[in-house]
Write a structure and sequence with these properties.
single chain, alpha/beta, Spore Coat Polysaccharide Biosynthesis Protein SpsA, Chain A, seven-stranded mixed β-sheet, 5 helices
């Protein structure tokens, strides 16, 4: 099934002391490039955040309003591409692979979204394949996306989740690299 990739990479990385988390290197590749490699089968890819040098060509956009949070980023990114399925990912998923992305898309079935659970069993709304129409409708319902939570955005969607997997583990602190 065709899909577009929407990668959120515009956060302030405050828990990393303001270091650009997307550009942190693990095993020779930036966190952003690791996610872009995992999604290279996408029909189109848009990164929401400042333009950076990456391993492959992608589209770029910024959230409106700037620094408006991940829902504003999703709204901005959703304006790009046209595939019926959009895989929404944060840039801090260093263990995500191409097969993980394929499983998200293939497992969507009749649901609005199919997401990864992290190793603690938490559903990762920013590691999920969504039906574009369902996500667009959720954004319309939420109104102004500024500072809204992703959990609130997807609260009314029919979501299914993977078994817990390392691919769903994001890195929010330096200690997360040691896990």
């Amino acid at each position: 099934m065709d899909f577009d990739a929407l990668v959120l990479a515009g956060g302030g990385s405050t828990r990393f002391g303001g270091v650009d988390k997307a550009m942190l290197v693990l095993d020779g590749a930036t966190l952003l490039d690791r996610v872009l490699t995992a999604t290279d089968a996408a029909v189109s890819t848009v990164v929401v955040g400042p333009v950076r040098t990456t391993c492959r060509e992608v589209g770029w956009t910024v959230e409106d309003p700037p620094s408006g949070g991940p829902v504003a980023g999703i709204a901005a990114g959703l304006a790009h591409g046209s595939a019926a399925v959009v895989v929404v990912l944060s840039c801090d998923l260093p263990w995500l692979t191409k097969p993980d992305v394929a499983r998200l898309v293939d497992g969507l079935g009749d649901h609005d979204g199919h997401g990864l659970r992290d190793t603690d069993g938490r559903g990762q709304q920013l590691a999920t394949a969504y039906r574009r129409t369902a996500l667009a409708e959720a954004i319309r319902r939420i109104g102004d996306p500024r500072d809204k939570s992703v959990r609130r955005l997807v609260a009314d969607l029919d979501l299914v989740w993977s078994d817990p997997t390392r691919a769903g583990d994001d890195v929010d602190t330096w200690a997360d690299f040691d896990d």
